[in-house]
Amino acid sequence: MIWYTALVLAVAVERLAELVVARRNTRWSLARGGTEAGSGHYPAMVALHTALLAGCLAEVHLTGRPFLPALGWTMVAVTAAAQLLRWWCITTLGPRWNTRVIVVPGLPLVTGGPYRWLRHPNYVAVAAEGVALPLVHGAWVTAVAFTVLNAALMAVRIRCEDEALARLPVAAARA
Hints:
By secondary structure, the chain is mostly helical. It contains 5 helices and 2 strands. The protein has helices spanning about 1-30, 40-65, 70-95, 120-135, 140-165; strands spanning about 35, 100-105. Strands 1-2 form a two-stranded antiparallel ribbon.
């Protein structure tokens, strides 16, 4: 279980790195006249993502869930793929990527990278990680709870983001 704790802590460190990038990008966006939409749901999103990490550790340590190699190693691969997709999104959006919904007027909608195929690829990464990270070590209650709560939150978040992004022109060139 020590290695699983290390994995969850590594994901937590990755999330902290995201917050550093997001804060820098928030300053960039606001300096260019960006406006935030949907700030009301942001605290719930932070709480849910924090609860995912805590739930992974608590469920495994309190219940003694076993590591099932066939499931566990597959979910390690899915967790890694989710991280790669997330950072592909971050690098594709550059300074426009954020954990908040901030739209800079006059900038075109990004249609390159993973956005070529998916409207919200970062949320695919979040959903995959929310299932995979707990299941690495059999924390199925955490996986189910996160998935249900995240689906409700994403319904709000995606609607908010789509409304904000509808104000942007579509880019002719791929980012």
